[in-house]
Amino acid sequence: xxxxxxxxxxxxxxxxxxxxxxxxxxxxxxxxxxxxxxxxxxxxxxxxxxxxxxxxxxxxxxxxxxxxxxxxxxxxxxxxxxxxxxxxxxxxxxxxxxxxxxxxxxxxxxxxxxxxxxxxxxxxxxxxxxxxxxxxxxxxxxxxxxxxxxxxxxxxxxxxxxxxxxxxxxxxxxxxxxxxxxxxxxxxxxxxxxxxxxxxxxxxxxxxxxxxxxxxxxxxxxxxxxxxxxxxxxxxxxxxxxxxxxxxxxxxxxxxxxxxxxxxxxxxxxxxxxxxxxxxxxxxxxxxxxxxxxxxxxxxxxxxxxxxxxxxxxxxx
Amino acid sequence: xxxxxxxxxxxxxxxxxxxxxxxxxxxxxxxxxxxxxxxxxxxxxxxxxxxxxxxxxxxxxxxxxxxxxxxxxxxxxxxxxxxxxxxxxxxxxxxxxxxxxxxxxxxxxxxxxxxxxxxxxxxxxxxxxxxxxxxxxxxxxxxxxxxxxxxxxxxxxxxxxxxxxxxxxxxxxxxxxxxxxxxxxxxxxxxxxxxxxxxxxxxxxxxxxxxxxxxxxxxxxxxxxxxxxxxxxxxxxxxxxxxxxxxxxxxxxxxxxxxxxxxxxxxxxxxxxxxxxxxxxxxxxxxxxxxxxxxxxxxxxxxxxxxxxxxxxxxxxxxxxxxxxxxxxxxxxxxxxxxxxxxxxxxxxxxxxxxxxxxxxxxxxxxxxxxxxxxxxxxxxxxxxxxxxxxxxxxxxxxxxxxxxxxxxxxxxxxxxxxxxxxxxxxxxxxxxxxxxxxxxxxxxxxxxxxxxxxxxxxxxxxxxxxxxxxxxxxxxxxxxxxxxxxxxxxxxxxxxxxxxxxxxxxxxxxxxxxxxxxxxxxxxxxxxxxxxxxxxxx
Lengths: 317, 539
Fold this sequence. Notes:
The structure holds two protein chains of two kinds.
Chain A: H1 15-40, E1 45-46, H2 48-51, E2 53-60, H3 66-76, E3 81-85, E4 90-95, H4 104-117, E5 122-130, H5 132-160, H6 163-186, E6 190-191, H7 193-220, H8 229-261, H9 264-298
Parallel strand pairs in A: 1-6
Antiparallel strand pairs in A: 2-4, 2-5, 3-4
Helix pairs in contact in A: 1-6, 3-4, 5-6, 5-7, 6-7, 6-9, 7-8, 7-9, 8-9
Chain B: H1 5-26, E1 29-30, H2 32-35, E2 37-44, H3 53-74, E3 80-84, E4 88-94, H4 99-107, E5 112-116, H5 120-148, H6 157-168, H7 180-186, E6 197-199, E7 205-209, H8 213-220, E8 233-237, E9 242-244, E10 247-257, E11 262-263, E12 267-274, E13 281-287, H9 289-301, E14 307-311, E15 314-317, E16 328-332, H10 338-350, E17 357-365, H11 367-420, E18 424-425, H12 427-456, H13 461-493, H14 496-529
Parallel strand pairs in B: 1-18
Antiparallel strand pairs in B: 2-4, 2-17, 3-4, 5-11, 5-14, 6-7, 7-10, 8-10, 9-10, 12-13, 13-16, 14-15
Helix pairs in contact in B: 1-11, 1-14, 3-10, 11-12, 11-14, 12-13, 12-14, 13-14
């Protein structure tokens, strides 16, 4: 059995269609982001990791609903947000307060719960208290991590390939990261530290996918001098298609397992990754090489279609 | 040695043995999010931003030592206490159940001082000046605004009077509040402070109604008010309020000599206990030889006067000196639970912080959540792995089985690597592991697809396998390296959970590279060894 054994799709020829599809989807995401920015004050649903504040996850024995909790919490820490979590009797209490000692608000919440329900009838599942200063630091660091990864992979690509490939790969990767962020915004998923990890993994994965295709382009170029660049690109995408599909499939299968049987942040992580892998696969097939073609048309290389081919890292074995 | 089959097998077995030994000896350390526990980040308190960078770093270093000492004595298994940067301390306490107690032990400055209590007249004489300072600081407008928001309810005055009599004995009610005379003469606005302060239960001791405490604190903080006190004099609140039937009514306020004659540095031993006479919780302490001598000298000079034991600016007790006191003494904690006394004794023994610490970040996970995360992670991981095995074997047949075998070894190597580097496994770490399995599979897919292509071109089996590996190499190197770069940056820039993810991902990538490129290749070589060059292979 072999998938796409003699695949010969004209991916690059239809690039306009896919550019339009991508642009339209991106437009939807931008519209969503603008809506949330206006309606909720922020297009991303930042968790306390970045905004500073307090989160208490509590499991209360017996029948309880948010209505029972609301007055208790309002008195302890006004302005808190309470949401039911998981199975019925678990609640997330979020409060923006973290002035002075970061743990003040969580202590007041726990004291209030103790006074209301008694020591034995509730369990604190998780507490997070982040001072405003730490929140700001984490935000800076997350941004730094994303930018640094972009910069270093760019340098790596410039070293391994030629600049046109590097630019096209960056376009495809930026496309994927933007889509993933648009998705996170549209679903208003919690943006916490693991989300940054997920975004960076998408970045790596998408780049990886694009590199495999470009690697093949680089390999095919010298052998197909008489064919047009467009044909080289199509050939390369089609040749790597079985690999692209197989790898995406196995990755998505593992992530699906994580998504279906995990909870909380693990589940969010898996969801973002699934979206990222799907988009990464799409972009490496439809966007990456197409961008390369557009770049090539604008800034054509010297006649003869000679790509700067470096000697391939030979097997150490 | 890499050239021969035997050499290759030896390398693989050697690496496997190393991983197994590391795993056997170190085990896998679980992160706080998996086993439950508390993570705290602390910094030296600096509300006004007056400390220089050197001071902060200096205090942090001193506090770090004391904190280690305290947590050792508190008895947490495998705590992790480390300095991050120049002025931040990270404390990780696995499996902690009583977070409040732990936080108190970590947060308390435990600065113990002994000070002489001055006569009541010192404050009484200074109060008119302090009143004037308040009036000056607030102005007419400010004073009126203050009076309007006054919480003292005139109807309850009668009831208060009774309680007052009960607490302090019959006092001439006209002289009751210290500012009473002036109040009648010039209206309440002229005595904003003194009318809130009452005579207390002993010399040098005053009392403030519990409802007025925030107001008095606010007034005392006004500029110039404290300067109205004589030099080397200060006011300190008592730790325990006067209570009637369990309800706090008045809070004591003491006039003290500002300079302590002894501090906690001279403390040698502190033990929690219960006062046999009053059944109150106490901490008994013993001073060292020099401290004892100093204490004796001071008490000998001050028989009949009171000495205040001040802990973190609060007066915990103020006994009257009846005779010379030697090296022993006690701090009374009233009705506080025994654990509080034990913790206080502990922090006193461990020593005081050079400057108070504040918690700037707290993350705590109860044990149940961690268990859930492990169970889910293992289940999802196993399921994902099983599905991958199914796909690989179904699609690549025999070659797929070789890859799965290599994946099995890969799993051992990753776990061994985690144990060997004593990295901690966190929930995002599990995600990183699962992801790196995907990467390992990808490398195999790249190779197999390439071999198939070569076979489709009609090349002989052995040459197809060789070229397949060779040609897939550059893509594998590129993909692994780019991911490794991201992982390393995550490790550098990330904190806590993100770092855990980066570590497992890095180890996973290295192991996956070795597994796909070296182990799978070896298996292929063994497999081909038994065949003639022209035989077809199952891929």
